[in-house]
Amino acid sequence: MSNKETNIHSSQSNVITIDLLELTRQLLFHWKLIVLMMLICGSAAYAYCRFYATPLYASTSGLYVFSKSTSVTSLADLQIGSSLTKDYETVITGRPVLDRVITRLKLKETYDTLRAKISISNPSDSRILYITVTDPDPEQAKEIADRTASIAATFISQKMDQDPPSIIQTGYTDDPPVSPRTMRTTAVALMVGFLLAAAYITIQYVTNDTVMTPEDVQEKLGLNVLASLPLETSESRRGRSRRRKHSYRNSSKRKVS
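Structure (tokenized):
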């Protein structure tokens, strides 16, 4: 056999084939393990969200970008409004504005920690900016959102030499917490538990090279089975043991007589 043929035979022997029907049988056979893993992951996620995680509340204020002197009669005016929206996003989250918010509200925050709590969103085809603040205290989240919008409007008017944007929305405090999402997190944890159990069973199935059937001998060893012996069961072993005892008793009786 040439080296090329040897390499081809070696590469083919290293290929792992997976019988999907047999793998499905293995998954069904180990259903208790799958359910147990899902219960463990789901219970852990639910307990974390319910008893350990800190609820976070969000409050949102809104700014309207167009100033009084801006018209909407031409495409150029609309493009200017879109450009201002991008500029305002940068200004609102800049250090000068947020440092003033920290000073005015006497927050025990640094610029980085406060910046992490603030997100700016701009709905498509609009000149409205929403300032959303997330905080464990809903009252403080509202105060930070409203004060950030107010200080940003004043800062834009002073530094950018234009009319300040209008505040069209102030924050609310009666919204439910945005985090943690207990049901969603628990559902994801259940799915993770299922995937972990299924992955474990699949790895055990793929790496199991035990020869169980004549087909395994031909597939794994490349040999043909000429004959096979029946598997001795516990019942047959008990029957053979009884026959031996009976034979021993008969032979003992013959010797005594």
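The chain has three domains: 16-53+184-208, 54-169, 217-250. The CA atoms of residues 116 and 134 lie 9 Å apart.
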